[in-house]
Amino acid sequence: MNAPDSPPAATQRGPTNLGRAELLLRRLFLTSLVLLTGLVSTSAALTVREAFKQPAAWFASAEGSQFIGNVVSHQSPVGSWPKNENTGASAYSGDPAKLKGTFDNGATTGELRLLAKASQATGNATYSNAVVRGIDHILGAQYTNGGWPQFSPPPAKTYHRHITFNDDAMRRLLEFLREVAGPQEAASNLFAFIDPPRRAKAAAAFAKGIDCILKCQVRVDGKLTVWCAQHDEITLEPRPARAFELTSLSGAESAGLLIFLMRFEQPSPEVVKAVHAGAAWFETSKLTGIREVKVDGDKKIVRDPAAPSLWARFYEIDTNRPFYCGRDGIKRFDISEIEAERRNGYAWHGAWGSELTKRYADWKSHWPAPSPNP
Description:
The protein is mainly alpha-helical. The protein has helices spanning 9-12, 17-45, 48-52, 56-60, 62-73, 109-122, 125-141, 169-180, 196-216, 251-262, 269-285, 340-344, 352-366; strands at residues 163-164, 219-220, 223-224, 230-231, 249-250, 290-295, 298-303, 311-312, 314-315, 324-325, 331-332, 349-350. Helix content is 45%, strand content 9%.
């Protein structure tokens, strides 16, 4: 006997033919919706770096075309892209004159590589034209001494005008130009469509950039050490940036520059000398027996004989003593003495020299240090 609130027995036997058809249509609709939603969310979730990893066929798809079109729409009038934005997530609909491009945080070079790959995959002239504009912008932004500001045109007064090693900005530009200037016949060369005169300019700019790096390497008591995060665009001397980023020897940016120089197949004697000097500085400047930890969300330095080596972000140029600084611009030698916001909101220590040390151990066997002058 059916329970009082049970449906009639006929209803329990299952759907009719009409019901089955309706159910099938609903399932098909829901499946299509899920697939469509997946496509949209996948496109929205992609970053420029992740899009670069997509296969060639993706660039000709509707999803790929939309993503690449969005990236193109974010190119500034001078040829650069803004930082800290997913430029492929949606099209830029504002005033193009308000787009502020930069070389900081991987901006511009990431978009240009992606567009070069898109051009290679599709033959779309819009993509290749955007790449040419970007390359011309990078070439035009280089100072006569070989350095680059954080963005171009550079400001007249703020620190952004300085030669910018900070966050590997100049290193990324040089790596990019080396790719542009690479062998045109190489099948893997994304920039094979770039005309020979521009490729030659890229090669010349790369050479000037390396010369600038070597000239910026800081000497202390006549001895080569490493680099500051930014250097004067005229004198090449170390310069400060934000209030808490004082003039210093940089443990972070210097490691990246040295690893970059060690990648040269045939380094010049000047490059060999610079690498040996920089690696020696990293060896003498490592911090041992301490560990950076967080206690209740607050950074602290604790003693730990078993801790791996660390390097400070900033070292005094004259004393090589690690230091810290808050937004008040006052140098301190104990991280606990700066405000919590800066103490916990900035990378004051890192394993920056670890990878360098590993690479250097092999590199120096191929390129021994030059004999000291008699």
